Every structure is written in structure tokens, then in C-alpha cells.
Amino acid sequence: MRTLLHMPFDPPSRMVRLVLAEKGLAARLVESPPWKDDPSLAAANPARSIPVLLDAPPTGGEIAVSPALAIAEYLEEAYPVSPLLPATSAGRAEVRRLVWWFEMKFEREVNAVLSRQRIDARLAGRLQYDRAAWLAGCEAMRWHLDYVSWLLENRAWLVGEKMTLADLAAAAHLSVNDYIGAVPWAEFPLVKDWYQSIKCRPAFRPLLAERVEGLPAPSHYADLDF
Amino acid sequence: MRTLLHMPFDPPSRMVRLVLAEKGLAARLVESPPWKDDPSLAAANPARSIPVLLDAPPTGGEIAVSPALAIAEYLEEAYPVSPLLPATSAGRAEVRRLVWWFEMKFEREVNAVLSRQRIDARLAGRLQYDRAAWLAGCEAMRWHLDYVSWLLENRAWLVGEKMTLADLAAAAHLSVNDYIGAVPWAEFPLVKDWYQSIKCRPAFRPLLAERVEGLPAPSHYADLDF
User: Fold this and answer.
1) Are the beta carbons of A67 and B93 separated by less than 8 Å?
2) 3-state SS string over B53-72?
3) Is there a smaller number of Cβ atoms within 10 Å at the N or the C end of chain B?
4) Where are the domains of chain B?
């Protein structure tokens, strides 16, 4: 059966789960912490990163796909129902730019010092708190939210009038940091409205139900009318 | 005119130049050092990373595309001549996995401590030499060459019997480190043969002619029969 090696609070893994759900594709979820030396992860992806999708495509054979953007491109090609990439080359280029933006820039400037420190480090048993890094992450978060606001000033979704993979990527990354209360929604009303539209989608429900042991979510986290 | 904001010894920029040349597409090359606070780079790409392609696609309008893999996907869609992605979804997924491999893993483990230190740091005027990091980079380089050898054991090119974007990505990354003599070719004859096939292509010639001031290339660097 279609299987996703993932972690519940890994933003790229969440993006892929949203893509699967939006396309109505079921997948068995297998937790695969990249900080453990797991031979099944290494066999599926020599880079030992998550997520990895194991699938039997409609055209036959078996396939192991990674990283997240390659999985999304693969699912878009193999299962074109509910497309998440625009019809034009320019639109697709803009979606890819923004997915990379979150996978690379937001990951390095925000996740690495906020959610990865608070959640992944706790799960890996090496929790530590660096106040200077945390404050730098919070400042970077505001800068990114400001950029997302700017994008939303003239568009209903990040890349135009339709929801795309760029929205799912952004929402996946924000959701994990929202779990640790690190998203100052009140200061960015446009981003809050946009996030609420995604949060209400059935695809998002399973994500909002997940919890980290010993780390309770803020009350607004799973509230659809926060 | 089609313009590429790039640096001559930036591996992702080199990959895009190879794609343009393989497709027979001319482009004006504009050097745009990401370590300088260049407003034209920020305007073309808010992430301030290179390469950025400015193009007027056949369908009309103007477009600024980044990062490198998104540029390659865009060129493949807009100019399908001389395709560099395989026809199957599985093949395309494998190409994307390997391009990410070099853009992320090889970049972090090898470029960051070898070519970026020796070339970019020199150009940015902040040259420093960290022997421990250099040795770790050389060890990582061997590990990566071993992986490429393994891929080439059963295939003529990295993803099968045809040259793809994965080969151009790998060759671009290796070429920059070859300029500083950091590729132990003699230990990896399969990789050497494969690299020679790419090095001989007309698309590669302009890259081999470039020099860094004050840093001579080893004699084998531009030698097609090294």
C-alpha cells in the first residue's frame, strides 16, 4: 500500500500529507525520525531525510520518491485530479519559487531555531534552550509573515485566485510553529484570514489533532475560528 | 533579452548555463554576487539567491525564475527541445531527487567547506582557511564520489541510458571543486569517464575557460583528455 515515511511535526511531511488529502489519496503513515539510524529510511532514501513516499504508480512498478517538492511534482503528474500547480509555466515557476522559499529560507531562518528546537529536539531527547536564537527566530518569523502579507494584498491565495501547492507549503510550515505559539497572528490579519481558509479544509483536520507528549498546544491551535 | 543573474563559480548557476546551452538558448550573463547588497538581485528574487533567470516566455509576458531547479523545470516546459527530464514519472522523480541531492546535501557537506571557502570567500574578500573543515569536506567528497560510482555501475548516465538534468547538476557541482583540485578522479574511474563525456560537450566549454584571479586552475581542469 502507498506509504509515507514522515514525522507528524515535520513541515515538509505535513505539506505532502496535505497534497495526498487534497487529491483524495490514502497512504499508510509510518513515523521515521531522521535523527535515528533507521535502515528502512536509508534504504528508501540514501539522503536519510523525510518525507519519503513509497508508491505503486498507475503505470506499474514501485517507486520511492523524495524530497517533499519532488513528491508533490510526482503526485501531480501521476494523479492529476485536483491540480495543485497552475496551468501556466509562469504560475508553476512562482509556486516552485515559494515552495523552495519555505523549504530552504523559512526552514533555515525560522524552523531551525523555533519548531525544530522545541519539538524535534524534545523528541530526540536533546532539548536545549538558546534565548538569543529563539528571539532571532521570532524576528525572522515576523519578516516572513510580512512577506506573506504582501503577497496576499493583491491575491486571494499566494499565487493567484486558486489555492496551490505554495499555500499548502506555507500553511504546513506555519502550522508547526503555531503549535508552539510562535505565530503572532494578531499582527498579520491578512495572513490569519488566509490561514483560516486552509485550516478549515478537511485535509487539515488530521494535522490539528496531533499532539507532542509533554508539550500542550495553545488553545487556539486547533480552533477553526481562532 | 533573456538574462541570467549568476556567478561563474556558483554550481547551481553553472547547471542552469548548461541547460541553456544544451537547449541552444542564448542568454546575457550578468554577474550578481549574493554577498553584495545588490538591489537588482533583490528585485528579481526577494530571497537574494542566485541564479535568477529573467525571460520573456513564448507565451508572452516577462518572468523572473529561481532557484536553479525551478529554472530548469521552467526551461523544460517553455522550450521542450532537447529534453533533459525523462518521459516517465519515475524517471523524473529520480532526476529531481538527485538534483536536490547536489543542491542540498553536496552543497552543505562539500561546497560549503571546499569551493565556497576557496573561491567565494576569496571573491568576497573574507578568505580564511579552516584545516579541519577542509579535511571533513575532502572526506565527504570521497563519500559522494563513491555514491556516484555506485549509480554509474549499472547505468551509462546517472538516471539511465540518456543524459538528464541530474548529470548536468552533478557535473556543475564537481567542476567547481575540480577547479581547486579537490576531486580525486584517479580513485573513481567510473566517475572520471562519465565526467569526461560531459566535459567534452560544447555546452561545457565556456565554463572551462573561466578563471578566478589569483587562483590558477590545475593543469587537468580544462583538459578534455585528463
Assistant:
1) no
2) EEECCCCCCCEEECCHHHHH
3) N
4) 3-78, 89-208
- Fold that domain B3-78 belongs to in CATH: Glutaredoxin (3.40.30)
Which residue is associated with the grid cell 590558477?
A: B216
pLDDT in tens, A130-185: 899 999 999 999 999 999 999 999 899 999 999 999 999 999 999 999 999 999 99
Pairwise CA distance, residues A124 & B121, whole Å: 35
For domain B89-208, the CATH architecture is Up-down Bundle (1.20)
Q: Where are the alpha helices (DSSP H) in A65-202?
A: 68-78, 89-100, 115, 121-123, 131-152, 165-179, 189-199
Helix A165-179 and helix A189-199: axis angle, to 10°? 100
Which site among A62, A97, A107 would you substitute to test the B interface, given the most B Cβ atoms closer than 10 Å to its Cβ?
Answer: A97
Q: In Å, how far are B66, B104, B178, B204, B218 from B195, measured between CA atoms?
A: 26, 21, 11, 11, 16
What does the alpha-carbon distance between residue B14 and residue B20 come to, in Å, rounded to a whole number? Answer: 10
Which amino acid would we find at residue A127?
L
Q: Tell me the pLDDT tens digit for each residue of B44-57.
A: 999 999 999 999 98
* B90: contact with A, CB 8 A cutoff: yes
- Provide the ipTM: 0.95
Cross-strand pairs, A44: none
- Give the closest residue to A84 by CA, choosing from A181, A201, A193: A201
